[in-house]
Design goal:
Length: 106
């Protein structure tokens, strides 16, 4: 079975993040789409990814209302790198990770 090499980028930010009146996660996904990447997903509510995470109440299972968001895209390295300047412009606070992956047909 042959595998194709690709780059996966994950951008971690908060749901409340915005840039020029628009949600940052939507603008980040748009930047990847405009760079030619079609495999994009936006995950809301994944907890515990940054230094600001933690218990904010003495009561169990009570979390901050501003949920974390992860925008994930998979494409060739050149397309990912073409989108990164715009992603960095939109991302005021957060984290960007890149990893090399192998894609297999389902």
């Amino acid at each position: 079975m042959n595998a194709a090499r690709a780059t996966r980028v994950r951008v971690y930010l908060r749901d409340s993040a915005s840039f020029r009146g628009r949600p940052s996660h939507a603008l980040i996904a748009e930047a990847f789409r405009e760079a030619g990447i079609e495999d994009i997903s936006v995950h809301h509510g994944i907890m515990g990814f940054d230094r600001a995470s933690g218990m904010i109440s003495g009561r169990p299972l009570r979390f901050h209302a501003d949920l974390p968001v992860v925008v994930e895209a998979v494409g060739c390295r050149e397309m990912v790198e073409a989108a990164l300047p715009r992603v960095r412009e939109v991302l005021e606070r957060g984290l960007i990770t890149l990893s090399e992956v192998e894609l297999y047909a389902p």
